[in-house]
Amino acid sequence: MARPSTDRIAGALRSPVTFSVLAGLVIGALFLVGTGADPFAAYGAVVTGSLGADGIGATLSTGTSVLGMALALAIPLRAGLINLGGDGQMVLGGIAAAVTGLYSPLPVPLTVVLALLAGVTAGAAYAALAALCENRFGVPLLVSSLLLSYPATSFASYLVRYPLKEPGSSLPQTRRLPDGVALPAFGTSTVTFGLVLVVLAAAAYWFADRRTAIGYEIRMTGLNPRFAAYAGVERKGLTLRLMATSGALAGLVGSVGVLSFPYRFLDGSLTAPGYTWTGLTAALLAAAAPLGTVLASFFFAVLQVGGLSMERTTEVPRELTQVLQAIVIVFLAARLSFPRRRRKTAQEPIAQGEFA
After folding, report:
1. Which among 50, 68, 216, 352 is placed 20 to 30 Å from 154, CA to CA?
2. How far is Cα 217 from Cα 226, in angstroms, rounded to an integer?
């Protein structure tokens, strides 16, 4: 009876993800030893600073944005599509939520819901524009999504520096949202109901990926686009739907950021922490699998928050955690690509002309 569990554990330990994480931690420890720091003290500071009583709230708050962006980028990545416009979609979602929250005449609860919907709609529409550029004009999605991000962030920056700027403030920011126009917080922490929304989005992604026909189509398109097209999957329509969903989640992250402390849109506050790139790293580490994306997002949130504590207590620069993220992805890419090349070489005489 214990055999399947033992095999499952052994398989997890031999997986490329486990190997990559462990290799990153070992190389990080070597870096610390080379600089004269104690790796055990540094890693201990990361754990206690992010998961201790004083840090778990910040980890969950950061994890809300990291997981939201990881899901936003994992959904198209599951089909082999790369959305690099997360920053623009997130910022447009945030500015749309801010404008709605400031000028909506509806009661406070309805205004909060309307602000969330406005952010989701803005992000979805802008991501769909990148998909249309590929479908109608042949611009690769990777290029169109990335380049469209710059005018979006510049437009939001213009709005908060001129027409929407708070009077009398020296900062590029909007006015504070009216009292009550905010997501409910858990107790006195900075963790808001946005975490619940993102977790529900992750659950919906898992259900769609594992229990629906569209999830099967997405996985098959990512594994073999030619086979999926032969089976009748319409690539252009799928690209449009996945990008709209991706942008909607990015817009949700922007809306949650505005409807949480400091309850306003502040230029650069959504993009400076690098949620888009951290989310993309988490999605890559998990190969865009739903459960793996959640775990990888939490892992990187721990590194991001714990790095600040490590810098305070051990004087080790927090940039080490960014080095760890890069090392993990490099090792993961090496583990996933080298064995494939060996198998391809070994099977080459058989495979030649197979699809001719």
Report:
1. 68
2. 12
